[in-house]
Model the fold of this input.
Amino acid sequence: MPARTFDTLRDFEIGSGRRGRLHSLPALEATGFPHLGRLPVSLRIMLESLLRNLDGKRITEAHVCRLAGWQALAERSDEIPFVVARIVLQDFTGVPLLCDLAAMRGVAQRFGRNPGIIEPRVPVDLVVDHSVQVDHFREADALDLNMRLEFHRNAERYRFIKWGMQAFDSFRVVPPGIGIVHQVNLEYLARGVIRQGDLYYPDTLVGTDSHTTMINALGVVGWGVGGIEAEAGMLGQPVYILTPDVVGVHLAGRLREGVTATDLVLAVTEMLRKARVVGKFVEFFGDGTASLSLPDRATLANMAPEYGATMGFFPPDEVTAAYLAATGRSDEEVEAFVSYYQAQELFGIPRTGEIDYSAQLELDLATVVPSVAGPGRPQDRIVLPELKARFDTLLARPAGEGGYGKVAGEQAERSLLADGSSLGHGDVLIAAITSCTNTSNPGVMLAAGLLAQKAVTRGLKVASHIKTSLAPGSRVVTDYLGKAGLLEPLEALGFRVVAYGCTTCIGNAGPLAPELEGLIAGHDLVCAAVLSGNRNFEARIHPAIKANFLMSPPLVVAFALAGRVGIDMATEPLGIGSDGTPVFLRDIWPSQQEVAAALAHATDPVIYRRLYADFATGNPLWNRIATSTGQTYGWDASTYIAEPPFFAGFGLQPAPLPVIRNARALAIFGDSVTTDHISPAGSIKPASPAGLWLQAHGVSPDEFNSYGSRRGHHEVMVRGTFANVRIRNRMLPADATGKPVEGGLTLVQPGGERKSIFDAAMGYLAAGTPTLIFAGEEYGTGSSRDWAAKGTRLLGVKAVVAKSFERIHRSNLVGMGVLPLQFMDGNDAATLAIRGDELFDLSGLEEGIAPRQPVTLTIRRLDGAARSVALLLRIDTPVEVEYYQHGGILPYVLRELLHM
Done:
């Protein structure tokens, strides 16, 4: 029987005369692991999963012993087979996952098996939050208008999702108009501990969105994975992870007056990026940690992908329990949560010296100051008073050095707009209160409302050409803002509720007025977006806006009032009040006492229970969506949903591994190439390969929707791979002004003809020529988009050679049968003088593959010279070797199921 070897099954008292059972970590400690109590809390929660799921096959006694004997400074070579309690999806990643499951059912049927063998083994929740776009924003009925457009554009996708609801027993859907997946998870889906009969165990999960880590604030172990890895977890496979280093972050002190949780997370992101915590667990501890509210912890946990960590974990304590109660969980659930973690000796924020960490970092909360981050990466923090000088510097810096190539101090000719204002560098055109990162935090949301209230009282206004929006992560936000009397002043400044979804944060900012886009293009203006989001990568927010700054919701309102980012808010006024006097930020910034007084409106459990009780009533647009039924899906001629090609020619035995000889470089990229660059989620250009394909299939440009909405169709997505308008392929020489060429272009070899990356890749595929991608540091940062790996695979890329990889994308590449290879010994494409016209061979894999083995890259140049260099194979674990040998994780799992 599971875990009987260690005899850890124990009774525990829950309270009120109730008892339950658990797999006791203190009992395991007594069997010969005397230092178990010094393990990081997150690892001990994972250890409980090993005990509970011990079966001698997937999970063995050796796995338990290795994790129980974790050493803080040991080399990491062992993998943990982590069985999660549940899985969450958002619709952009959930729809292609559902396509894969439907295709796998079709394969099972073709092999004479019951399609029902393809069925989630754990509960799965899909939250539809990524599809809504901000088309309407200042109208009184903007929310309704945007939702109607959303349902019109996405009817085919929603029919498919509804088919999935009836086809799979363990598949639930939170429909559009409810909220953002991570805020819904925090406020509703998460249970803290889960009960199965009389057995209790921790709530754990993975999600198909990198910001799944937000749930770490509740003491829930979970992180983001690609859809392909989540599918394996749904179908009974453990989520395999290399035993991690755990970095302890000691927070001391208290935040000062005027400093928000957003300012704190930007400081932490900058600090932890510099500390190189990529692929590591981060666990917060100390008195400063204990002082943080649960929403403040959630803001920090949410941005773990931005600082590169697998998790940003907060151990459970009294604050956690109080939040569960305040957000509508039952008294019995909260009581079981506290009793369970107390029985496991895991309740309470650890103090200094109580836990062994791989490394410890220190941050005094009192040193955090108001800040923003940008203009293109979340870790590029700028102290608020320095923003004006920093922006001027970036304007003047050459484009090849990360600037905008403008003359120092230059202001392009300012053209009058219809509202009488003018447009120039640094002017704000989008101001969005958006993203679960901040809209889950009543403190910063109420601060934004209070600031707006004071601004309206002083007679300040936001220019009409600025696209303002308020997109809460749940309906609870609207409720408490309304009860606090703060919705009206926000609306008066243009911040109307436009949607309950991700909107601007994921690139669904919607169009700007044609007049504005014409001026931006005509004068090559560097205009700005200000948003309370978590990402600001190039072309993510809007393809026409080059400078994007992350900040707290009240600062979004302040910059909208100022109308420009080139302002020193310490010395310059936001505007002139109705009495003719200047109004400074300090004049209208709300105090901590004012925010605290308003917080009472956000902690009513009755409201949470009511708003999350029923998703169908009052949702006529969703209820009217009709769908097909049955275990298998009848693929039609949709341009949104298509049977994926990954199982074409599928056999019960894997094909031989590819031999990579005479390969060509498809592209050479620099540092920080994100999944937004690789697989865009924003608008589709009519002249792009994807746009041309859609038009050839009868779709007019005004019906294109977005790349993200069309992730269920491989023909669109493969054409969108490497099609970002800001991506820079270093194979192409700079233009006549020295500016790097942007867009998804490459040079086809031999000969050097310029083509789109898609067209070039199709030519190489037709000729049987394998291709490689070369890149710099942090390749694949950003969202957990499996299409960034799927598109790479469908383009015929056999390997990606980079200086370093972001965790999720590296895993996704392996999961799609693409080799991730890492430069060694300080080499990269530049030091090796790789131009893109060479031929490449990869050797060292012929006799078999082992995790992290050396691979040899041979570079053969046009003049006949050859050079061989060592690369590191970034297939990190034994199970990843198996995935690659099967051509990817999905064929591997499908073969296992068909052989059962």
The chain has a mean pLDDT of 93. The first strand starts at residue 9 and ends at 15.
